[in-house]
Amino acid sequence: MKSMKGVLLAGAVVIIAIALSFAICKASAPKLSKKTVTLNVGQSAKLKIKGGSGKVKWKSSNKAVASVTSKGKITGNKAGNATITATRKKKKLKCKVTVINTSDKTSEDISSEDINRSIEASTSENAANPDTDNAGSKILVAYFSVTGNTRPYAGQIAEKTGADLYEIIPEVPYTSKDIDYNSDCRANKEQEDDTARPVISGSVPDFSKYETVFIGYPIWWGTCPKIIDTFMESYDFSGKKVIPFCTSGSSGISTSETHIRKVLTGAVVEKGHRASSKSDVDSWVESLKL
Questions:
Q1: Contact residues for 231 (Cβ-Cβ < 8 A; gap 6+)
Q2: Are 71 and 85 in contact (CB under 8 A)?
Q3: How far is Cα 190 from Cα 200, in angstroms, rounded to an integer?
Q4: Which pLDDT tens digits describe the chain residue by residue (290 residues)?
């Protein structure tokens, strides 16, 4: 009997020792201080590894876009995307880096000069110019615009195609602080959260009647803002033709276009377009032959 108790006690000790060892290993497992970083061209940020010990080797997948020093300091060199990999004892940790260029005044990536004035102006314009409703139209131009750069292109497309115009307005409006990407702002948090779905104020009347839907938006962190996901998930796009367009001072539309295709699996998503000027948009819309 005593020997049986001894065996059970020894077994319990072994189990506890294994559990403690696992917990210690798990607690000390290395982690990067950030999994995603957004920088302006010329801006820097420091990555750190938490937990574990040993020498770290840093590497950038695209040095032309973002370089990294032997101490984990990242510098944005030009607009684009890169992945920073930190290797310690064969353990690889990755951080996705997006570099934007806000020096281009046509940019609506996330920040622009005189942003408070832009937001105030766009609010006034909304009140003075309600969305158009062209009776019998089978085309809808839906757009989201915080600083006002996307709005005129959306109106231009609607006028040229005879489409109805609908602005995607957040229930809680974005302030200048909400889109200050250099801080821990609301937009930063939303773009880093795959589950974020900002609530939209209002809805599209009789969405089912539209055969073609343009979706316009600024590029935030290399892709479309999360409120566009809210919009896409709010309606049945089955069988509809979807045409994305964006405004951006540096980033292209391809990443957001790919995302839209993944979300709207039942729709026919056409090649998107980055709007840069009135004449550019006119030529693009004419090429669609709607």
A1: 142, 144, 168, 200, 215
A2: no
A3: 14
A4: 555 555 555 555 556 555 555 444 444 677 888 777 777 777 788 888 877 777 888 999 888 888 999 888 888 888 777 889 988 877 888 888 877 665 443 334 444 343 444 444 444 444 333 455 555 689 999 999 998 889 999 999 999 999 999 999 999 998 888 888 777 889 889 988 999 999 999 999 999 999 999 999 999 988 999 999 999 999 999 999 999 999 987 789 999 999 999 999 999 999 999 999 999 999 999 999 88
Would you list the DSSP string of the chain?
Answer: -HHHHHHHHHHHHHHHHHHHHHHHHHHT--EES-SEEEEETT-EEE--EES--S--EEEES-TTTEEE-TT-EEEE-SSEEEEEEEEETTEEEEEEEEEE-TTSTT--SS--TTHHHHHHHHHHHHHHSPPP--TT--EEEEE--SSSSSHHHHHHHHHHHT-EEEE-EESS---TGGG-TTSS-HHHHHHH-TT--PPEES--TTGGG-SEEEEEEE-BTTB--HHHHHHHHTS--TT-EEEEEEE-SS--SHHHHHHHHHH-TTSEE---EEE--HHHHHHHHHHH--
